[in-house]
């Protein structure tokens, strides 16, 4: 197994572990997810599969050298680290399904001081890196864009739930932070 495959395996394994271990508990407010987690996973599976298939079928190189695979790999690793730091900072309030934990508090420090959804930023960085590593414009678009749209849909659901829970406090937080890209969006 080469380095690229090893990193991708670690990336997928970490996402599966987060998905299995960090679900909401019995005392949490549930039913807020609106199947957005399922939508994200289906989107990822289809996008990655089709993106890889297209990269083998149609030659639309982003760059003519093979160095892009390593740049993509570095971005995947950066995304994994960024996501894991965001999950660690959110601590017990992080769940893979949209829910409000018992005694839930709004975190506004660390990565969350600048971004409202840094764990999604980390995931999206990894998908961007994976798309780049395929060195194919069409594959990059197929891997990244549907995943981005599925996550934005999920973010809209989350922000509605958080606004209902925290009211003005969350609206003030929205006013001073960006969703996914510091100082931009």
Keywords:
185 residues, mainly alpha, Four Helix Bundle (Hemerythrin (Met), subunit A)
Structural class: mainly alpha
Largest sheet: none
CATH topology value: Four Helix Bundle (Hemerythrin (Met), subunit A)
Distance between the termini: 37 Å
Global outline: elongated
What's the CATH architecture? Up-down Bundle
What is the helical fraction, as a range of percent?
55-70%
Number of domains: 1
| Number of strand elements | 0
Uncertain segments of ≥5 residues (pLDDT<50)? none
Rg, please?
Answer: 17 Å
Beta fraction: under 5%
Q: Give average pLDDT, whole number.
A: 87
CATH class: Mainly Alpha
Order of helices and strands: HHHHHH
The total count of helices amounts to 6
């Amino acid at each position: 197994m080469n380095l690229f495959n090893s990193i991708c395996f670690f990336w997928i394994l970490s996402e599966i572990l987060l998905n299995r271990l960090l679900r909401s508990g019995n005392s949490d407010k549930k039913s807020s997810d609106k199947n957005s987690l399922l939508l994200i996973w289906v989107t990822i599976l289809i996008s990655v599969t089709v993106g890889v298939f297209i990269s083998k079928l149609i030659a639309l190189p982003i760059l003519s050298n093979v160095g892009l695979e390593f740049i993509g790999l570095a971005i995947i690793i950066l995304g994994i680290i960024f996501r894991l730091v965001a999950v660690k900072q959110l601590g017990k309030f992080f769940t893979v399904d949209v829910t409000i934990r018992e005694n839930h508090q709004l975190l506004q420090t660390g990565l969350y001081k600048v971004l409202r959804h840094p764990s999604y930023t980390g995931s999206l960085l990894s998908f961007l890196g994976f798309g780049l590593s395929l060195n194919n414009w069409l594959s990059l678009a197929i891997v990244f864009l549907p995943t981005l749209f599925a996550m934005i849909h999920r973010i809209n659901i989350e922000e509605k739930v958080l606004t209902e829970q925290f009211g003005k406090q969350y609206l003030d937080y929205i006013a001073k932070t960006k969703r996914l890209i510091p100082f931009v969006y």
